[in-house]
Amino acid sequence: MRFTKDHEWVDLVGDTATIGITAYAAEQLGDVVFVDLPAAGKTVKAGEALAVVESVKAASDVFAPISGEVCAANAALADNPETVNDTPEAGGWFVKLKVADAAEVEALMDRAAYEQFLGAL
Amino acid sequence: MESCALVPDEALKSTVLAPDHRERGGRMVAFAGYEMPVQYADGILKEHLWTRASAGAFDVSHMGPAFLDVIARTHDGDANHASVASVVDPLVSGDILGLKPGQLRYTTLLDRSGGILDDLMIGRPIKPESQGRLYIVVNAGAKEADFALLTAAAGDRARLTRADDRALIALQGPKAAEVLGAILPEALSLSFMTYRRAEFEGHILRVSRSGYTGEDGFEILVPAMIALRFWRRLMADERVRPIGLGARDSLRLEAGLPLYGHDMDQTVSPIEAGLGFAVSRRRLKAGQMRGAERIASELAKGPSRVRVGLRVLEGPPAREGAGILDTAGASVGVVTSGGFSPTLSGPIAMGFVPPAMAAAGTRLAVEVRGKAQAAEVTALPFVPHRYHRAPAGARV
């Protein structure tokens, strides 16, 4: 699993990357009440808006950590958005992307580097 | 992901309770020039539901409590009250002269064309020797301007004494009365929208039965030197949890209560804001109100827009600034407050629409990130109020 400074995680298996937000991000957001996810087939470039996560208090943009084509969105979040808080790095995933360039994933932080990054916040 | 919490700044003011908020895991954010807890460790959702089920304690010391005292006091209490009321009445929509001893009234401060400068509470003391004084609580963001306006109006007839160096604590929820009654037995004699003095460890507090959640509850003005002790005494009761500004906002939204700067501002009249109950018909008829012409005309012919409640029937919450559309997709208004209702488990909003579209049940839409989502006009409040009202006839 790889991580971004925007507190997203990316789990690459073959050419499919599962993407979600980290436990730190979920804790900072507070109770998630809605996740606005892109439709399958949408193409995104790294840094573009990918999803919007809504807490009781506010809406926050989630940007695509890598480029690719959305092949699945987590439909279970529609009825159970709290899964993002409960298991952010498992059942609370947002989308699966067919990655354009696996090197973009390799360039992200590994867990040790991300934890060091969190420690410095 | 963008962080939405503002970082506390050294220039921010702190309330006397701030050290305790930090100890309890309060997440401090900048609000109206103060660093305030937006939530504690429980989070907004749990804090909200706790307040509806038990009792929540809120630090609202950033607000603007003050006393206005007539300078030339006589032995006639009613005359003293009339004197101090004559300073305030020309500035507000309500009838301050008509307050009974011990009564608290919600009113609006108006500009010369009937726009709302702020909404506020004004109380008349119970005790005969205190007549000629008003207890006033204004919003944090407007307090400097409000106090300047009141001071100018008072001239040499009355003196305004700020009390925003004290703590103002709200205790709200179905168990608030049991909890506070054990600490301040005097509080139990209060009914909704009355206030009185009470004593804690030899110090004088002002307790009103009022709040901003739709629940029964109290707002308590506490001298700074005992504020932490009083707050910790509340916290020691297991029925009480501290509640941050996040849940304060979601609670007031469910209660259908407008927030100044969002659901009303200087462009909005009390009639448009749905605050006709806070407009004195006697003073309006006499033409003795700022913006009387506009307000009277809106009362007679109806305003061009009114504040309504909306249930958003699908999709994400519609927040402040979201467009309101009719079923054909034409723009008819704008959301002024919106979010997720923990009690109803769905998105709710308030906003302004033409009166023809304001009836409960009217189908509309809200536009969020370019998508129209079905919505329906709903009677306010979204969640029924549970105020402790005195029986009819027994009201002060």
Question: Can you tag this structure with a few keywords?
Answer:
heterodimer, A: about 120 residues, alpha+beta, six-stranded antiparallel beta sheet, three-stranded antiparallel beta sheet, 4 helices, 9 strands, about 20% helix, globular, B: about 400 residues, six-stranded mixed beta sheet, six-stranded antiparallel beta barrel, 9 helices, 20 strands, about 30% strand, disordered N terminus
Provide a compact summary of the structure.
With 121 residues, chain A is of the alpha+beta class.
Structural account:
The complex is a heterodimer of chains A (121) and B (396). Chain A is an alpha+beta fold and 121 residues long. Chain A is built from four helices and nine strands. In chain A, 41% of the residues are buried. With 396 residues, chain B is of the alpha+beta class. Chain B has a six-stranded mixed beta sheet with strand order 11-12-13-10-4-14. A six-stranded antiparallel β-barrel of chain B has the order 15-18-17-16-19-20. In chain B, a hairpin with a 2-residue loop joins strand 11 and strand 12. The N terminus of chain B is likely disordered. The interface between A and B is medium-sized, with 24 and 25 residues.
